[in-house]
Amino acid sequence: MSKTTDLASVDNIRNGLINKILSFQNKEFLMALDQLIASSSEESVVYELTEEQELMIQMSMDDISNGNFIDQDQLKSKTEKWLDQKKI
């Protein structure tokens, strides 16, 4: 399929959706559709990572694979102990 055909197909789909949406009277449905569209456009954002960020992510993934992590409760406990020591 050529790029022109793809664009025509996208335009046809978009126009068909617009026509269907214009016929809806259900406010709750339209609000839900609006939220769905808003959330899907937020999810499609692509972030470029620096080499350092990619390295840090890889190091973190390696830590997880090797069991070098603590759960939220352990982190909270360690943080509270550390803060208590700082008060002295």
Please give the count of helices. Answer: 4
Strand runs, count = 0
In helices, the fraction of residues equals: over 70%
SSE arrangement, N to C:
HHHH
Report mean pLDDT, rounded to a whole number. 87
Distance linking N and C termini: 71 Å
The Cα radius of gyration reads 25 Å
Main sheet summary: none
Describe the SSE topology:
Elements: H1 3-23, H2 27-43, H3 51-65, H4 72-87
Describe this structure in words.
The termini are far apart. This protein has helices spanning 3-23, 27-43, 51-65, 72-87. It is built from four helices and no strands.
Labels describing this entry:
mainly alpha; 88 residues
Task: Write a compact overview of the structure shown.
It is built from 4 helices and no strands.
